[in-house]
């Protein structure tokens, strides 16, 4: 039986770079040959959630949401637009960070769909955050002498938004790799504006748990932290703020290793991946020697 992977992302009519991570991770996975087909689909771009299954020939489809948290898009929008018969969030049996897989039928195409939890709540995302810290510091052993701030949007409209950030901060803290690990937010306490008050180490790596770089990661967060008064003038990596060196990485979703989290979701759902994990990790965990891009003048 043929299989397909569908990566479902938000996209944007205003920010052409919003869809870039979905296309790049799809390309990485496509190169492994693990699936007969790999498709990208978007809420705000084409191909749309509503139409994507009609572009897939495979009888068995693994759908992985390229979203950070469980909530409106993963629990309502995507299943509705894919016309997944019998879907209800309870099928994931999740506490807000533990969504797994629901096997459903697409009403208009008859395909079997393995609907997976979002990449942002998978345990493997913790590895991507650490890899992001390696990449931005150009130091594969980064940890000792560094604090880590994992940054999320935070919103009172979706309590799971903060849960995902805190979940990974807790997991990374438990490894004792970094001197300190804090979960910080844009729209709720503790706020990223006060990062130097919450993290005491001289060197602080800041990793935003966002899928793509856009208004929040490229403009709001750098200005809120005091890296620059005007994002258009740029800033250094690291930039010194209140006596601390801030290593700002930009969105975690642009880290190549995120492709492996997509595969982890499909693997957990029963996909036969034939060594694809090893291929992705071999290709992407060597990227720490690439220069950081976010905010460079």
UniProtKB/TrEMBL annotation:
GO BP terms: cobalamin biosynthetic process
SUPFAM superfamilies listed in its UniProt record: Chelatase
GO terms assigned for molecular function: lyase activity; metal ion binding
Name of the protein this chain belongs to: Sirohydrochlorin cobaltochelatase
Cross-referenced Gene3D superfamilies: 3.40.50.1400
Species assigned in the record: Halovenus carboxidivorans
Superkingdom: Archaea
Nucleotidyltransferase recorded as keyword: no
Pfam families: CbiX
Keywords: Cobalamin biosynthesis, Cobalt, Lyase, Metal-binding
């Amino acid at each position: 039986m043929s299989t397909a992977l569908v990566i479902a992302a938000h996209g944007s009519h205003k920010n052409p770079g919003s869809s870039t991570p979905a296309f790049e991770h799809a390309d990485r996975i496509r190169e492994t040959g693990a699936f007969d087909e790999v498709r990208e689909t978007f809420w705000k771009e084409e191909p749309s959630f509503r139409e994507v299954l009609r572009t897939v020939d495979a009888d068995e489809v693994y759908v992985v949401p390229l979203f950070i948290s469980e909530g409106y898009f993963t629990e309502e929008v995507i299943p509705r637009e894919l016309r997944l018969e019998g879907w209800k969030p309870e099928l994931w049996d999740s506490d807000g960070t533990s969504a797994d897989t629901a096997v459903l039928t697409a009403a208009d195409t008859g395909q079997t769909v393995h609907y997976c939890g979002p990449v942002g709540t998978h345990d493997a995302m913790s590895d991507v955050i650490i890899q992001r810290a390696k990449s931005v510091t150009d130091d594969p052993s980064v940890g000792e002498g560094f604090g880590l701030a994992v940054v999320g949007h935070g919103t009172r409209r979706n309590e799971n938004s903060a849960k995902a950030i805190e979940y990974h901060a807790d997991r990374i803290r438990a490894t004792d790799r970094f001197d300190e690990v804090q979960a910080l937010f844009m729209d709720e306490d503790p706020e990223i504006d006060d990062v130097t008050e919450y993290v005491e180490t001289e060197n602080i790596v800041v990793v935003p748990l966002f899928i793509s770089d856009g208004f929040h990661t490229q403009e709001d967060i750098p200005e809120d932290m005091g890296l620059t008064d005007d994002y258009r003038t740029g800033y250094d990596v690291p930039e010194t703020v209140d006596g601390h060196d801030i290593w700002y990485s930009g969105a975690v979703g642009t880290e190549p290793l995120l492709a492996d989290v997509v595969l982890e979701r499909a693997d957990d759902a029963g996909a036969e991946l034939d060594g694809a994990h090893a291929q992705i990790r071999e290709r992407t965990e060597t990227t720490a020697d690439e220069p950081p891009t976010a905010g460079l003048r």
